[in-house]
Amino acid sequence: MAKRQSFADKANKKAHLKICPICNSAIDCVRMVDPAYSSDKKSWKFKDKIVEICKCNEKAILG
Questions:
Q1: CB of 16 within 8 A of CB of 6?
Q2: pLDDT in tens, the chain (63 residues)
Q3: How far apart are CA 37 and CA 8, in angstroms?
Q4: Among candidate residues 62, 63, 59, the one with its CA nearest the CA of residue 30
Q5: 3-class secondary structure per residue, 19-61
Q6: 20 to 30 Å CA-CA from 22: which of 36, 37, 47, 55?
Q7: b/e per residue, 13-45, with b = 16+ CB within 10 A?
């Protein structure tokens, strides 16, 4: 049987937390979506990529 896990155990879990070595803040993974208009099919396409954001590069990425 699996061990019962309380909400406090889930909230305190920090196993997937990355720390930035430059600014010592937590790194968040964010999906950035870039819409691009294709002229050959005359439709919109969306390019998405996952970017890691922390306090030191937040203004440069989100601009």
A1: no
A2: 777 878 887 777 666 688 999 999 989 889 999 999 988 888 999 999 999 999 999 999 888
A3: 46
A4: 62
A5: ECCCCCCEEEEEEEEEEEEECCCCEEEEEEEEEEECCCCHHHH
A6: 47
A7: eeeeeeeeeeeeeebeeeeeeeeeeeeeeeeee
